[in-house]
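To close the chapter, one final illustration. This time we ask the reader to focus less on the individual chains and more on the assembly as a whole: which components sit near each other, and how the overall shape emerges from the parts.
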Amino acid sequence: MKRNTMSYKVKQFLMFAGPATVLFFAVVILPFVYGLYLTFTSWDGISKTKPFVGLANYLAAFKDAAYWQALGRTFIYSAIAVILVNVVAFLLAYLVTSGIKGQNFFRAGFFVPNLIGGIVLGYVWKFVFNRALVSVGQALSIGALSTSWLATTNGAMLCLIIVSVWQYAGYMMLIYVAGFMSVPKSLMEAAQIDGCTKSQATWNVTVPLMRASFVQCLFLTITRCFMVYDVNLSLTKGEPFNSSVMAAMHVYNQAFTYKNYGTGQAEALILFVVCAIVGVTQVYIGKKGEVEA
Amino acid sequence: MDANAQAAQKKKVSHAIMMIVLVAVFFLFIFPLILVIINVFKTKADITSNPLALIGAHGFTMENFPKAMEKMNFLVVFKNSLIVTVCATVLTLLVSSMAAFVIVRNNWKACNLLFSGMVASMVIPFQVLMIPLVSLYGGIFGVLNSRITLILMHVGFSASMATFMFHGAIRTNVPMELEEAAFIDGCTRWQTYWKIVFPLLKPTIATVAIIDAMAFWNDYLLPSLVLGRKELYTIPIATQVFYGTYSTDIGLVMAALLLAMLPILILYLFLQRYIVEGVTSGAVKG
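The assembled structure is written out below.
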């Protein structure tokens, strides 16, 4: 068999990797490159021609106050949501690995929100915020609950954060659980023999060894929160008064509602770069101090 | 009381406290879903007057379900979601495991280029690709509004991650000796792949299948951009459209939401262990 000829190699490659290569290029690489090109044109989504406009789209993006507001809002939302998701997830993971009865049941239960798509989740919670909480507030005459949180500017943000924590905590919990399990029991025991209490041993021995889990959970939550769209659409739809429009929704509207494809794509690219910088910096800092057992 | 008994006592108390916390949080986690379930069986007036009551003043009703099913066109929508999810998942598994095989076993330029491109592309979020995607395939090629386009796009987007996972699995779990033995016995590479390598990849196949099937089933943004015709809608799009039309008819909305959640929740009841394991190992490897 001639294993070194060019035609053998080409045949083998196409036979095994051909379909994946074609699809990957058609759906990821080509649109990415074409997207770069789009940012230099002013296309309205209908006309046949795409006039070249140079950097006008980037200028428009920089001048688009609503976009920067949305981006700032996404920052605040992501910062709070990422911290809360990880705190809740870590505590839950700690509880369900402590050898308590029914821990597998709890693990499975906390994961349930992840099974359901963002659109459906958003509508379920909309019902909770608009109807259930309001009815509790009115029945017990609690002022803060008797009108829907979704109707106020800060309330809508708060609701988005609550839903995100609910949605992602179970998933991140599973990663932290895997982290807890990866730390050998003998290390905990050694620390306890040396006089540590259980919480001291957890904090000083287990947590530093789980650094990889933290880095990973933070990366996943940061990228997901930055790109939030589904829940945003179904829960608040950007209301009230566009005060809860996140960056991804702004990009979507810019392109598909206002038909500014070029500007929309430029804004999407900026969002991607910002998100990538934050995510990669986090991973870099996190990995630098990694400890080996 | 000696020290051991005291320690045991302390452990019992701390376990009791942890149990209470867990049960409370667990209740918070499933509270929204329970709320949907109890309100499905109430009339619109009862839901409005008291959404928290277990049974409405007008009693138990089953009317919401059939009405919502009919208005949402649930059977068609469910069938669409199923077709898209199954086809896209199977194709992703085949296409990416094959690609991973040729990448791992050959140090060719094309392989390295493809693999590094795939790994690098995993950081690109869908939102960056959606506008050019629509303008390319909607504007220039005009192939939107088709289930096949959606399936192939799903495969293309998930191929990088899946190939990456199969790459790891083949490198660590498939011994070269087996392939060499197959070669000596006269197998071609194609036969070796199907008879030796693919069967050894079962655990990774399960992981990738679970992760991707869940992602495809629940995806909203891509299908909403690709599928414009009503008869092609998947469950998330149909839910969104339904809510837009019937948001005031809250009983129907409850039924529609429950219908949208039910298939995957039922599946979870049976495959719970595999799903939890698959998602964990997928996340930790990725």
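Chain A touches chain B through 85 residues (CB under 8 Å). Residues 45 and 281 of chain A are 36 Å apart (CA to CA). With these observations in hand, you are ready for the problems at the end of the chapter.
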